[in-house]
Amino acid sequence: MSDAHRPTAREIAHEHLEAGDPLGWFEDVYSRAGGDDSLIPWADQAPNPNLVAWLEQAAAPASGSALNVGGGLGDDAEELARRGFVTTAFDISESAVAWSRARFPGSTVEYTAADLFHAPAEWRGRFDFVLESYTLQALPPGLRSDAIRCIASFVAPGGTLLVIARGREEEEPEGQMPWPLTRRELSLFDTHGLHQLTFDDYMDDEDPPVHRFRVTYGRA
Ligand SMILES: C[S@@+](CC[C@H](N)C(=O)[O-])C[C@H]1O[C@@H](n2cnc3c(N)ncnc32)[C@H](O)[C@@H]1O
Q: pLDDT tens, position by position, for the chain (220 residues)?
């Protein structure tokens, strides 16, 4: 198939979502891209600037174990490892995991395929720092409360969770995937033993700018 006829990630997602398969499209997108990262809409070949800006802040954790949820092609995990975290990155897509390993052959990051909803039991309460960026917004709203419970479970006592997502006000329409999150949805993290530490609500530097929520939580 020529590139001109390749379905876009949004089209692939739409097909799966229509068929009631909200998780299968990720592997389909990565495997059909055949190594061409221009076909992965969220792959920038650089760490997320919203993450980097946060890590530059004095209060950001500086070391320990880190878990990157839905790590994609690995740029954020590599950034965490570069800064000294002992980093694990997981993704539901085997192709994304293989692609990350191929991109960063000498990496100290442990790239592994796993489904957030069936993650290894030994990850429970194990990580000093958990990063979730842009995965929740790619999951249909009906899966989010379960996803939030699973993400929260990874945070160790004394640990920190950073969530970066598109944001919307309650009265704004849900729109299309990626579906922005509301403050009310994010407040579910507080029901799983975490407490909100900071809440950044801002327009980012993309063109056009995107409404972002960047939220940190701690576990006592
Ligand atoms: C929108 S992408 C964002 C990727 C990466 N965090 C980034 O910002 O570049 C969402 C990622 O989450 C992964 N993902 C989706 N559902 C998942 C699940 N249930 N368990 C693990 N990973 C999942 C997808 O394969 C995809 O790589």
A: 344 556 788 899 999 999 999 999 999 999 999 999 999 999 999 999 999 999 999 788 888 999 999 999 999 999 999 999 999 999 999 999 999 999 999 999 999 999 999 999 999 999 999 999 999 999 998 999 999 999 999 999 999 999 999 999 999 998 888 999 999 999 999 999 999 999 999 999 999 999 999 999 999 9
Does residue 65 sit within a domain?
yes
Give the CATH number of the domain where residue 146 resides: 3.40.50.150
> ∠179-216-62 over CA atoms, to 5°?
125
**Residue 179, domain member (yes or no):** yes
* Per-residue b or e along 122-152, where b marks 16 or more CB atoms closer than 10 Å to that residue's CB: ebeebbbbbbbbbbbbbbeeebbeebbebbb
Q: Flag whether 61 is in a domain.
A: yes
Ligand 1 neighbours by CB, cut-off 6 Å: 23, 26, 42, 48, 70-72, 90-93, 96, 115-117, 133-135, 138
- Ligand 1 centroid – CA 112 distance (Å): 12
Dist CA 177 CA 124 (whole Å):
29
Is the residue at 211 inside a domain? yes
Q: How far is the CA of 69 from the centre of ligand 1 (A)?
A: 7
